[in-house]
Amino acid sequence: MNSRGSTNRLSSTSNFRSRMSFLMLSMFSTMAALYVAGRLWLDSENRVYLIQELDRRTGQGRSAISVDDTLKIITCRIIQADDFFAREQQKRLTALQMELGKASQEGFVSKHLLDNNEKDSKKKLLAVIGVSTNFGNKKNRDAIRKAWMPTGPARKKLEEEKGIVIRFVIGRSLNRGDSSDRAIDDESRNSDDFIILNDHVESPQEQSKKTKSFFAYAVEHWDAEFYAKVNDNVYVNLDAIGAVLTSYLDKPRAYIGCMKSGEVFSQSEQKWYEPEWWKFGDGKS
Fold first, then answer.
1. Average pLDDT over residues 44-71
2. How confident is the model at residue 12 (pLDDT cuts 50, 70, 90)?
3. Distance between CA atoms of 40 and 51, rounded to whole angstroms?
4. Which of 23-37, 57-71, 120-134, 220-234 has the highest mean pLDDT?
5. How far apart are CA 250 and CA 240, in angstroms?
6. Residue 18, CA distances (Å) to 4, 15, 21, 24, 27 in order
7. Which of 101, 203, 204, 283 has the CA that lies 20 to 30 A from 80?
8. Under the cellular component aspect of Gene Ontology, which terms does the record hold (predicted)?
9. Half-sphere exposure of 80 toward its Cβ, with a 13 Å CA cutoff?
10. Hey, how many other C-beta atoms are within 10 angstroms of the C-beta on 82?
């Protein structure tokens, strides 16, 4: 048998252990909540930093990550944190809302408003057309300028009213700075209708690379619905191509072109010899 005193001592010990267990559990829960909240806050800050770095490197400028976006991230993290952490971050949210008002006055507006303003102030181009040419084809370029490619004020009017930009596309000579390079520089200064790819060396074997370089350059410098490439022995009907491209505006990611079919020539002495013939289809076709 246990005495009454022993029973009281056992009851006190049990209550003490229960309170200690509850206290330890509460402390552990609080620490865990603070740890999770801290990690969430750090994660949101890291995301903001990475977005800012990405936009800075792609030339979007300081309005690419807006204060609105930052507020959304912080608000999301507040919902996931505990009540104590939420109260602390609510103060931060209030401060950022004040910063938003100040930033708006200084011209740092939300990305949504900036996009709308840009659309209103600068119309998106219909097409950027690159005319691939080389050093020995000045006669071709002069013929194109007389036939279908406007020059001077007429070319500017075409860009503003029709949304079509046209430029000759050429790289650099293997012997950088030689007479070929100087001739192109002089022609470019007089006509102002060239894209000179300084990182590309003109070579018959590098035409596909030249085309890719042109597309990269065009996308970087102009915002257009379409980017087109033709050669300097092709005569373009601008009205017709404008009508065709307009009919494809509601079809995103459209690729329009002439794809060759038939035999792929694998012998170097053949006129249409393809150096990488082995990449094409079954039975060299």
1. 52
2. low
3. 16
4. 220-234
5. 18
6. 21, 5, 5, 10, 14
7. 101
8. Golgi membrane
9. 16
10. 14
pLDDT of the residue at 81: 47
CB 168 within 8 A of CB 139: no
Grouping H, G, I as helix, E, B as strand and the rest as coil, residue 219 is helix
pLDDT computed for residue 122 by the predictor: 58
Burial 246-269 (b: 16+ CB within 10 A, else e): eeeeeeeeeeeeeeeeeebeeeee
pLDDT at 61: 43
Report residue 36 as tokens.
């999770």
- What H or E segment, with its residue span, contains residue 266? none
Q: Count the neighbouring beta carbons within 10 Å of the beta carbon of residue 164.
A: 23
Calculate mean pLDDT across residues 277-282.
72
Using the structure block, give the residue that is written with the tokens 């950088």. Answer: 176
- Coil, helix or strand at residue 269: coil
Token couple for 58: 């792609």
Tokens of 22: 């509850």
Estimate the crossing angle of helix 4-57 against helix 83-105, to 10 degrees: 20
